[in-house]
Design a protein that fits this description.
Elements: H1 3-15, H2 24-33, H3 35-74, H4 76-81
Helix pairs in contact: 1-3, 2-3
Length: 84
């Protein structure tokens, strides 16, 4: 595997608490020694956070649309009785 992919795999294992992750002490030593690794890990963590936020927004929007459809159907008969 290419070194860049191995580095990304190492970061992902650590951030996702994969069973193959390094012990916390070893990971912290690597972060202290390799400033680029620390920056890459931080960037990856921010990316994961952004994806979680975007996923939550999308889910809220989908739930809002479902609610609107259900709500519109539930009271449609009332609107026919008393329009406007």
């Amino acid at each position: 595997m290419r070194p860049e992919l191995e580095r990304l795999q190492l970061i992902e294992q650590q951030l996702l608490n994969n069973p193959a992750a390094l012990p916390a002490q070893d990971w912290n030593v690597r972060l202290l020694i390799d400033g680029e690794l620390a920056a890459d890990a931080q960037a990856q963590q921010q990316l994961y956070h952004g994806l979680r936020v975007a996923g939550r927004r999308q889910l809220r929007q989908e739930l809002r649309l479902i609610h609107e459809r259900l709500h519109a159907g539930r009271f449609a008969w009332l609107r026919r009785l008393w329009p406007g």
